[in-house]
Amino acid sequence: MSTAILDQAGVVIACAACGQKNRLRYDRLGSENRCGKCHATLAAPAEPIEVSDAATFDSLVSSSPLPVVVDFWAPWCGPCRMVAPEIARVASRNAGRYLVVKVNTDEVPELGDRFGIRSIPTMAVFKGGREAARTAGARPAADIEAFVQSAR
């Protein structure tokens, strides 16, 4: 899982050059961001990031100019564990084009309930604060990327 974390204001990441933690505001995702300490360019998140609560999720999807790809999953789900490395590949190959996040429906059941998640894994794409597309089931990275592309 990613070393980046989400809070209600943005994605907190460590600068690769100096280690300083920086917050990339959600409304600035996709733009060039620089470290507040050493001014090095900060790389876009390239790993799936865990969503810890519904308020953070709402802030992210309502503010991000980038599409947000959401993997609704649970740790006990075999297909969810199978698709996890595929989701990681998608995040790595598309860093800066869209943000990939994971919602553990056991830990944040409010989101699973709100979006009517009945089977997992379920992937959804959010654009402009709204759900643009959804698919269920484990699939390879190329299929996930094609799904995201079709939602754009």
Describe the structure.
With 152 residues, the chain is of the alpha+beta class. The chain has one domain: 3-Layer(aba) Sandwich (Glutaredoxin), CATH 3.40.30. Helix content is 28%, strand content 28%. It contains four helices and ten strands; from the N terminus they run E-E-E-E-E-E-H-E-H-E-H-E-E-H. The protein has a five-stranded mixed β-sheet with strand order 6-8-7-9-10, with helices on both faces. The radius of gyration is 15 Å and the shape is globular.
For the record, the CATH class is: Alpha Beta
CATH superfamily: Glutaredoxin
Number of helices: 4
Strand order of the largest sheet: 6-8-7-9-10
- Cα-to-Cα separation, first versus last residue: 26 Å
Rg result: 15 Å
Low-confidence stretches: none
The proportion of residues in beta strands is: 25-35%
Q: Can you name the CATH architecture?
A: 3-Layer(aba) Sandwich
Basic shape:
globular
**SSE order:** EEEEEEHEHEHEEH
Question: How do the helices and strands line up, and which of them pair or pack?
Answer:
Elements: E1 5-6, E2 10-14, E3 21-25, E4 33-34, E5 41-42, E6 49-50, H1 54-63, E7 68-73, H2 78-93, E8 99-104, H3 109-114, E9 122-127, E10 130-136, H4 141-151
Parallel strand pairs: 6-8, 7-8
Antiparallel strand pairs: 1-2, 2-3, 4-5, 7-9, 9-10
Helix pairs in contact: 2-4
